[in-house]
């Protein structure tokens, strides 16, 4: 199966956001990945609801929303109303993770769990069957353009084994430092979806770069 490609709008040209979204509409991208940062869970601030709503007006692709925020449960319904199709919350930010996943599903969105590089896959054992997506951070969250962390390969294998053991339907998404050099091994280890920001938007031909990632094997 060909991978799901989710370009991250965090690396796009914000001054020309409509044209960037339209470029993605006309590409082989499957999802639009949107990073929400609050300046508390991560040391950066990004999009808010008005920008998400604007993107939704132009986007023809599902919106994959990654919440890098504290107390995400306070905003789930609002993100869904702003257009989120997938909503991923960090295990490190959720005191009641199971409840938050059920809250996401109650809105009609797909529920995702995001895990930081230092977080063990074992923490997902009791909730893996409640997740539609596991977003593995292959860089430290908060900034684009970081170097890929090699331990990600081992973590993918661990989460893939857990998914199989528990008969979960969750997809595995890898976020951070993805490129054509590491994409084939990420897919071989069990990744289903690849998030790429700087690698796509800083390339000479983003549409072709997306196509190349889509064909990675």
Automatic annotation (TrEMBL):
Keywords: Carbohydrate metabolism, Cobalt, Isomerase, Manganese, Metal-binding, Zinc
InterPro entries: Aldolase_TIM (IPR013785), Ribul_P_3_epim (IPR026019), Ribul_P_3_epim-like (IPR000056), RibuloseP-bd_barrel (IPR011060)
Pfam families: Ribul_P_3_epim (PF00834)
Segment forming the signal sequence: none
Names of the cofactor(s): Co(2+); a divalent metal cation; Mn(2+); Fe(2+)
Free-text comment on the cofactor: Binds 1 divalent metal cation per subunit.
GO molecular-function term, one example from the UniProt record: metal ion binding
The UniProt record lists the keyword Manganese: yes
Recorded GO CC terms: cytoplasm
Record: residues binding a divalent metal cation: 33, 35, 66, 175
Known pathway: Carbohydrate degradation
Binding site for substrate: 8, 66, 142-145, 175-177, 197-198
Superkingdom assignment: Bacteria
GO biological process: pentose catabolic process; pentose-phosphate shunt
Catalytic center residues: 35, 175
HAMAP family: RPE
Family: Belongs to the ribulose-phosphate 3-epimerase family.
Function: Catalyzes the reversible epimerization of D-ribulose 5-phosphate to D-xylulose 5-phosphate.
Name of the protein described by the UniProt record: Ribulose-phosphate 3-epimerase
């Amino acid at each position: 199966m060909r991978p799901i490609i989710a370009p991250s709008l965090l690396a796009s040209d914000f001054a020309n956001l409509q044209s960037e979204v339209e470029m993605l509409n006309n590409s082989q991208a499957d999802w639009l990945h949107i990073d929400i940062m609050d300046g508390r869970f991560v040391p950066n601030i990004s999009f808010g609801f008005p920008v998400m709503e604007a993107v939704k007006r132009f986007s023809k692709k599902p919106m994959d929303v990654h919440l890098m925020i504290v107390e995400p449960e306070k905003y789930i319904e609002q993100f869904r109303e702003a257009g989120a199709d997938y909503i991923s919350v960090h295990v490190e930010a959720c005191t009641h993770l199971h409840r938050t996943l059920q809250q996401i599903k109650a809105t009609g969105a797909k529920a995702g769990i995001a895990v930081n590089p230092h977080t063990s896959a074992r923490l997902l054992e009791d909730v893996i069957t409640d997740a539609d997506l596991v977003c593995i951070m292959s860089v430290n969250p908060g900034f684009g353009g970081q170097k890929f962390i090699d331990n990600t390969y081992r973590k993918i294998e661990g989460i893939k084994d857990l998914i199989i053991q528990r008969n979960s339907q969750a997809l595995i998404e890898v976020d951070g430092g993805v490129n054509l050099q590491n994409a084939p091994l990420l897919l071989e280890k069990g990744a289903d979806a690849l998030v790429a920001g700087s690698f796509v938007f800083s390339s000479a031909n983003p549409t072709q770069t997306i196509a190349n990632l889509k064909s990675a094997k």
